Structure formats: structure tokens, C-alpha cells
């Protein structure tokens, strides 16, 4: 087995540096994560005051809201990426970085 394929802890980047690098590549990832955490936190807070609503219905509503926020953030990220890669260079003669 070649030493190039060996995993080394020195070469592995930390979780925080990896998240920072990924958020630079696609800036809507942290927005999706933050929105998901916000919806989950709000859902847990409202769990106490759900009155006569069934638990399963409350959890389904919170799951749909969280997934909707993440899908919306991913969609905005894709649209931003398409704009950055195709539309802006074509109309504004901006070089790719």
C-alpha cells in the first residue's frame, strides 16, 4: 500500500476550519444551518404552549418548516452560484477568481 493513500491526523483539518472554508465556497450553507437551528429552537419553545394540538402534528409542522428553510437556502445558493459563474462574467466582463 502506498504511503500517499495513508490517512494522517496532521493533514486533517479541524471542524471549524472546514466549516469556514465551506462557507466561503457556498455562503448560503451557514444561512441554512442557522435557519434550521432557529426553526428547531422555536419549535422546542412552542412545544410547551401547543394547547390541544397532537405532538405528532406539531413535530411534522416543525420538520416541514425546517426543511423548507434549508431547501430555500440551497436554492438561493444555487441561483447565486449560477449568477456568479455565468451571468456576471457574460454581461460585466468580470474574470473568474
TrEMBL record:
Location relative to the cell: Mitochondrion membrane
Which keywords accompany this UniProt record? Membrane, Transmembrane, Transmembrane helix
PROSITE patterns, alphabetized: HIG1
Against InterPro entries, the record matches this protein to:
Hypoxia_induced_domain, RCF1
GO CC terms, sorted: mitochondrial membrane
The organism's superkingdom is given as: Eukaryota
According to the record, the segments passing through the membrane are 27-45, 65-83
Q: Name one GO biological process term.
A: mitochondrial respirasome assembly
Q: Where is the HIG1 domain?
A: 1-92
Q: Which PANTHER family match?
A: HIG1 DOMAIN FAMILY MEMBER 1C, HYPOXIA-INDUCBILE GENE 1 HIG1 -RELATED
The name this protein carries in UniProt is HIG1 hypoxia inducible domain family member 1C
Amino acid at each position: 500500500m502506498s504511503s500517499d493513500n495513508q490517512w494522517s491526523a496532521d493533514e486533517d483539518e479541524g471542524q471549524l476550519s472546514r466549516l469556514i472554508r465551506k462557507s466561503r465556497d457556498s455562503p448560503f450553507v451557514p444561512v441554512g444551518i442557522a435557519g434550521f437551528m432557529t426553526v428547531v429552537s422555536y419549535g422546542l419553545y412552542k412545544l410547551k404552549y401547543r394547547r390541544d394540538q397532537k405532538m405528532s402534528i406539531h413535530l411534522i409542522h416543525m420538520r416541514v418548516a425546517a426543511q423548507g428553510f434549508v431547501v430555500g437556502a440551497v436554492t438561493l445558493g444555487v441561483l447565486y452560484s449560477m449568477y456568479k459563474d455565468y451571468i456576471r462574467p457574460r454581461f460585466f466582463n468580470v474574470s473568474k477568481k
